[in-house]
Write a structure and sequence with these properties.
313 residues; 9-stranded mixed sheet; 9 strands; globular; single chain; 11 helices; 37% helix; alpha/beta; D-Maltodextrin-Binding Protein, domain 2
């Protein structure tokens, strides 16, 4: 069977190998690049709709999975284990399933930013105090795009446009979340916004950085947690195999592997007694999100952000 996956090969390949060992089903995976994470794969699936090659889309975020659903390219499938996941992280009709979350966090250089001066909100991305000293991935791809869509829905278009215009004038815009994390760990930036997996890699490599979960006060929005997501292609050439893989990926065993592995992802399902190395889902106050509604904001958001961030170049 063929899987298009936006989760880094270093994190997902061993999972596929384990599935093959247990089932005898060979998985051929197609990966995306860091700079265009999820978008190239999504566009490929749209282009291939009439000549399908892919059986399952394993996305490392959720926005582009919902884009495929809106185009009628996903097939419903609700395995029994899906009911063990929180409702906000799965489609009510089985068109997509979220699991193994990451958080959108601030990564801060210990040597450049004292704890008492550290930013505590994503709003600090627009604070002139930090101009050119912090970084963000371009908000058109991957989890950064999902975050942008959520903010357009949460705030409304006008406030979101104002925020991103101020951010664009203030931050160092980079090709991906990993590059932001690396730049902070090397002292090229004081801090930045990234995902927990990229931040953890830098921390566990011994670099002088720390994670800050943003917007934790009662009057703030909370930290955004973004799940991996699975979508079974409507015209899957191998639907039975794809369904087996969906069940396997939603298993406690796989969420445990992703929590313990280098990506340090946070279990959303019944992986009882397994904790990510990132103190997130239980230790941080999460943002309340309706991902389906947030996806409705993406067309407006992407048009504005594309013009804002590409015109600036």
């Amino acid at each position: 069977m063929v899987v298009y996956t936006a989760l880094d090969r270093d994190f997902s390949e061993t999972i596929f190998d384990k599935f093959t060992e247990e089932t005898g089903i060979l998985v051929r995976a197609k990966y995306d690049t860091e700079s265009t994470k999820t978008v190239n794969l999504t566009n490929a699936l749209i282009e291939e709709a009439n000549r399908p090659r892919c059986d399952l889309f394993w996305n490392n975020e959720i926005l582009n999975t919902l884009r495929l659903h809106r185009r009628g390219l996903l097939a419903p499938f609700t395995p029994p284990i899906a009911a063990t996941y929180p409702q906000e992280y799965r489609s009510p009709n089985g068109f997509w399933h979220g699991f193994a979350a990451r958080a959108r966090v601030l990564i801060v250089n210990n040597e450049l930013v004292p704890v008492e001066e550290q930013p505590s909100s994503i709003l600090s991305l627009a604070d002139p105090k930090w101009k050119s000293r912090m970084g963000m991935a371009k908000p058109l791809f991957g989890t950064t795009a999902t975050h942008a869509a959520v903010l357009f829905h949460y705030w409304g278009a006008e406030r979101a446009k104002q925020f991103f215009a101020e951010v664009q004038a203030n931050v160092k815009v980079m090709a991906g979340n990993k590059r932001v994390a690396v730049a902070v760990s090397r002292g090229q930036l004081a801090w930045g916004i990234t995902d927990t997996d990229d931040a953890m890699i830098e921390i566990e490599a011994g670099h002088p950085v720390r994670i800050v979960f943003p917007d934790q006060d009662e009057d703030q929005m909370g930290t955004l947690f973004i799940p991996n997501s699975l979508g079974l292609l409507r015209s899957s050439p191998n639907p039975d195999a794809a369904k087996q893989l969906v069940c396997f990926l939603l298993s406690p065993e796989v969420e445990a592997l992703l929590a313990k592995g280098p990506s340090a992802q946070m279990p959303l399902g019944p992986a009882v007694g397994v904790a990510s190395r990132v103190p997130g889902m239980d230790a941080a106050r999460s943002m309340t999100v309706d991902f389906e509604e947030a996806a409705n904001s993406w067309n407006q958001a992407s048009e504005y952000l594309h013009e804002l961030f590409y015109t600036a170049e």
